[in-house]
Amino acid sequence: QVQLVESGGGLVQPGGSLRLSCAASGFTFSSYAMSWYRQAPENAREFVATIGSSGSTFYADSVKGRFTISRDNAENMVYLQMNSLKPEDTAVYYCNRPGRDWGQGTQVTVSS
User: How confident is the model at residue 66, as a pLDDT?
Assistant: First the structure.
């Protein structure tokens, strides 16, 4: 049974940082690309970042230079380091195995 479990969300002030984690299980993690998406209230879910099985990365323009996606294949974990956070980064962040599975999401709120 595939599971993706996100953690690390919370309330942070503008300019602050958070690190999201996603624990994956039920599949051969190292063989798959993994992604992060986010959904703000009344908005469609949008792509944030992806990391390939070999470690190659790709980012949405809105987060490029501020967010970093990484993975630990030994621990079946994928991370999203978020720096210089802005109020417009407020959303529920989802871990995703492309084309297949979603986590339950973790709330990130950027507010003073």
Answer: 98
Contact 102, 2 (CB under 8 A): no
Q: How is the chain split among helix, strand and coil, in percent rounded to 5? A: 5, 50, 45
Instruction: Encode pLDDT of 31-81 as tens digits.
Output: 999 999 999 988 999 999 999 999 999 999 999 999 999 999 999 999 999
Closest to 39 (Cα-Cα) out of 110, 111, 105, 112: 105
The two structure tokens encoding residue 21: 């984690």
Identify any residues that bridge with 49 across adjacent strands, giving them in sequence order.
36, 59
CA dihedral sign of residues 56, 28, 102, 15: negative
Q: List C-alpha distances in Å: 70 to 13, 40, 42.
A: 23, 23, 29
- pLDDT (tens digit per residue) in 22-45: 999 999 999 999 999 999 988 999
State the Cα–Cα distance between residues 89 and 97, nearest whole angstrom.
Answer: 21
pLDDT at 99 over 90: no
